[in-house]
Amino acid sequence: MFQRWKSQLIPEINLFPIELKGRGVRSSEPFYESFEEAVDDIYSTINSSIKGPYAILGHSMGSWLALEVYYKLLQEGKSLPIHMVFSGNCAPHCEKEETIYHTLSHEDFRLAIQKIGGAANEVFENREIFAIFEPLLRSDFKMIENYCYREKSNKIHCNMTIMTGRDDKKVKSSDLISWKKHAGANCNIFKLDGGHFFIQENITDVTKVINQIFSSYLV
C-alpha cells in the first residue's frame, strides 16, 4: 500500500512506515503482550530513526497508538511532531464496545470481524487466508480491549487532521468530533469515499489530503 502512496505524494514527503511486531519484516517476532508495549516500541523507533520535522499518521488501532506515542514523546521531552493524523477510529476516550472479540470462537470471531469490517474483504473470502491472519487480528483486538485510556493534562500542541471513510461502519460523525477534545490547535476533518480501509481503497484522495496538509509547511 505505502509503495502506491509514494508514487502520489509530493517529493518533499519522506514516507517512513513503522512495522509492528508480527507483521511484514517482523513477522517472526511475537505479538505484543500489551498496548503499552506497542507504544514503547513505536516510541523507540521514532526516537532512534526520525530526524528533522516529522508527522505521525495512525489508522484504526494505529490512531490510538499514535495518540499515546505523542504523549510519551511529550512526557520524555523529545522533539514533537509538527502534525498528527488520526484515521479510521473514534478518539480513545469514547465509550468502548461491550463485545469482547478476542475470546470468541473461530467461526464467531470470523463472522464478527467481517460484520464490523475489521479486516479487508479478501481476508474473509478464503478461510485458509483468514486462518493465517486470525492470530494477528486476535492480538490486535486483545490489545484494544485491554487498553485503558487515561485522561491527559495537556492538549496536542500541533495541528491535527481526522480522516474517515464515508462507508465505515465503525466510525460515526460524533466519533470524528470526539477527537477535538485533544486539539490544542487546528483540527480538520475529512470524510473520503470508501469503507474502513479507505486508505487502501482510495489512495488518490488520501494522498491528496496528505499533500495538502504538508504543502502548507513548505511555504
From TrEMBL:
Transmembrane parts of this sequence: none
The Thioesterase domain, residue ranges: 1-212
InterPro entries cross-referenced by the UniProt entry: AB_hydrolase_fold, TEII, Thioesterase
Entry's Gene Ontology BP terms: lipid biosynthetic process
Gene3D superfamilies given in the database record: alpha/beta hydrolase
Similarity field: Belongs to the thioesterase family.
Name of the protein this chain belongs to: Thioesterase domain-containing protein
Native organism: Bacillus thuringiensis subsp. medellin
Organism taxonomic ancestry: Bacteria, Bacillati, Bacillota, Bacilli, Bacillales
